[in-house]
Amino acid sequence: MSFDLADTLDLLQRTPGVLTAWLAGSSEAWHARDEGDGTWSPLLAVGHLIHGEETDWVPRARIVLEHGDAVPFEPFDREAQRVRFAGWSLDDLLDRFEVLRQANVETVRGWRLTDGQLALPGRHPALGAVTLRQLLATWAAHDLNHLAQIARVMAKRHAEAVGPWKEYLGIFHWR
How many other C-beta atoms lie within 10 A of the C-beta of residue 99? Predict the structure, then answer.
């Protein structure tokens, strides 16, 4: 399927609402669980999404638009949320994410990107050559990846309680 910027931005704009519906006002039993050492709880995943809004997607898109691949992207700290948002409540994180995401989506919409601009090259520090189109598509896929991760972590709260139905629920066999 081909990349469609309007559809991508529509999906990106919806992510905060999905997370708010799932998590706002929820108990720690739902949002503080993780899958063990080195994994993320829903709270940490939301912090990670915020960090991406602040330092990754739109800042990297600006680099591509202004410098192409002449200026490589700064490395992204995938664990920054552990320190950056320590002590924040989940509801505060959800509010911050919504504000940042709205602003970033409006920024990208305001650029009125052409196919030529979407094909512009950038330089990822680990992956090498990428395009603006790939960056924006990855932004959306990244959201979906973390929504799936959050759903999986939340479902595991009931892994034993579902009894024999566990066999039929793929979410319990996915990692």
Answer: 13
Ramachandran region of residue 41, left (φ > 0), alpha (ψ -120 to 50) or beta?
beta
At residue 96, the pLDDT reads 98
pLDDT digits (tens, 9 = 90+) for 38-61: 899 999 999 999 999 999 999 999
Give how far Cα 85 sits from Cα of 94, 133, 145, Å. Answer: 12, 30, 21
> Is residue 72 within 8 Å of 130, Cβ to Cβ?
no
Instruction: Give residue-wise pLDDT tens across range 3-41.
Output: 999 999 999 999 999 999 999 999 999 989 998 898 999
Length of the chain equals 175
**How many whole angstroms separate alpha carbon 89 and alpha carbon 69?**
38
In the block, tokens 């939301």 appear at 46
DSSP-derived letter for residue 153 is: H
Tokens 């892994």 label which residue? Answer: 159
45, 97 Cβ separation under 8 angstroms: no
Query: What tokens appear for 20 in the block?
Result: 């708010």
Q: For residue 33, what are the CA distances in angstroms to 42, 43, 69, 90, 156?
A: 7, 9, 40, 13, 9
- Closest-CA residue to 115 (of 141, 139, 97, 136): 136
| Domains of the chain (ranges, CATH numbers) | 5-173 (1.20.120.450)
